[in-house]
Write a structure and sequence with these properties.
Elements (H helix, E strand, L loop, with lengths): L7 H8 L1 H8 L1 H8 L3 H8 L6 E5 L5 H9 L4 E6 L2 H13 L5 E5 L12 E7 L8 H11 E12 L7 H5 L23 H10 L3 E13 L4 H10 L1 H7 L4 H15 L3 E2 L2 E14 L2
Parallel strand pairs: 1-2, 1-4, 2-3, 4-5
Antiparallel strand pairs: 5-8, 6-8, 7-8
Helix pairs in contact: 2-6, 10-12
The structure holds S-adenosylmethionine (SAM).
Length: 279
C-alpha cells in the first residue's frame, strides 16, 4: 500500500542515492546499529502473538527480529524508501519470515489501523518528521490503549568520543547535513522529547542513554571506504577532486587504525532509548 507523503523532501532523499546506499550496504549499517538491538528489544518487551509496528524500518533488520519475537503475531514495517523496503522484503523471503509485511508510506500520515498494534518500535526512524507531534500522534493512534512505544533516537557524538577522534580529518569538511540527514538531530533535547510525546498523547515517558560498540568495517581501510560512502560524508566531500578525497580516505584510515579489533573496526557509540505508553 502506498499513501500520500507529508515529508516530500525526505521521501525524495530516501528514495534517491542516499536510500540506495543504505539498500546496497545493509551489512555496514547493521554493523553500526546492531549493538543497540538488545536494549531496544528489552524495552519493547514484545510477546508471542503481539502486533508490532516498526517505524522507519529501512532494510528491515529490526522488523525481522521483531517477527521472531512476535511468533503467532505480526509485524508491519513502514518506510518512505522503496529501495530499502525492496531489500527488506527480499530478506524476509530469503529467511522464510511469514509474519512480517512492509508498506511504503510516511509514518507521519500513514493510515494505521486504529489501535491495531500492541507495540511500536523504531531504530532511528522517528527523528525525520517535519511535524514531530503529528508523527508521534499518528503512531499513538495505531497503538491500542496501554500499547507501548520503544524507539531509539540519535545523539550528537561527544567531541572527544571515538568517532570524533577517528574521523578528525573529516571535521573541517562537514558543513551541513545531507538531504536524508535533515531532521536527524531533531530529538536530541530530552525536554523537547518529553514535550513532543506529551503533545502526541503519550504518558509514562522514560529516556536513557545506551552505549554500544559500532562495527564500521573489516579493517581500517574498509571502514574508511564505508564512512566515505555514507550519505552525510559523501555529500560533504562531493565538491572535492578525486586526489583530495583519496588523501582524506588515507588519513581516515590512519585515524581508524587504533580501533581495529579481531571483530572489525569497533567504536564506542551512543543513542537515546525512549519509551512511552498510549494511555
Ligand atoms: C537512519 S535510517 C534507519 C533505518 C532502520 N530503522 C535501521 O535501523 O536500519 C532512517 C529510516 O527512516 C525512514 N524514514 C524517515 N522518515 C520517515 C517517515 N516520515 N515515515 C517513514 N519512514 C521514514 C527512512 O526512509 C530510513 O529508512
Amino acid at each position: 500500500m502506498t499513501t500520500s507523503f507529508a515529508n516530500v523532501q525526505q521521501a525524495e532523499a530516501w528514495n534517491g542515492w542516499e536510500g540506495e546506499v543504505w539498500a546496497e550496504n545493509p551489512d555496514f549499517y547493521n554493523g553500526m546499529l546492531d549493538g543497540f538491538n538488545d536494549a531496544l528489544f528489552d524495552a519493547a518487551a514484545i510477546q508471542p502473538g503481539d502486533r508490532v509496528l516498526d517505524v522507519g524500518c529501512g532494510t528491515g533488520r529490526t522488523t525481522l527480529l521483531a517477527a521472531g519475537r512476535a511468533a503467532g503475531g505480526s509485524v508491519l514495517g513502514v518506510d518512505l524508501s522503496g529501495p530499502m523496503l525492496a531489500r527488506a522484503g527480499a530478506d524476509a523471503a530469503a529467511q522464510g519470515v511469514t509474519n512480517a509485511v512492509f508498506e511504503r508510506g510516511d509514518a507521519q500520515v500513514h493510515p494505521f489501523p486504529d489501535g491495531g498494534f500492541d507495540v511500536a518500535i523504531s531504530r532511528g526512524g522517528v527523528m525525520f518528521f517535519a511535524d514531530l507531534v503529528a508523527g508521534f500522534a499518528n503512531i499513538a493512534s495505531g497503538l491500542r490503549p496501554g500499547g507501548r512505544l520503544a524507539v531509539i533516537t540519535a545523539m550528537p557524538g561527544a567531541p572527544d568520543g571515538d568517532y570524533a577522534r577517528a574521523t578528525a580529518v573529516l571535521r573541517e569538511h562537514m558543513r551541513g547535513p545531507s538531504p536524508a540527514a535533515q531532521g536527524m538531530m531533531s530529538m536530541v533535547d530530552p525536554a523537547r522529547i518529553e514535550e513532543v510525546l506529551a503533545a502526541a498523547g503519550f504518558t509514562g515517558v522514560t529516556m536513557r542513554v545506551v552505549e554500544a560498540m559500532e562495527v564500521l568495517g573489516r579493517d581500517a581501510a574498509h571502514a574508511a571506504e564505508n564512512i566515505c560512502a555514507m550519505g552525510p560524508v559523501r555529500f560533504n566531500l562531493a565538491d572535492l577532486d578525486e586526489a583530495a578525497v583519496r588523501r582524506i580516505r588515507a588519513e581516515l584510515r590512519q585515524g581508524l587504525l587504533p580501533f581495529e579489533t579481531p571483530r572489525g573496526v569497533s567504536l564506542r557509540a551512543r543513542v537515546r532509548l525512549v519509551t512511552a505508553t498510549r494511555p
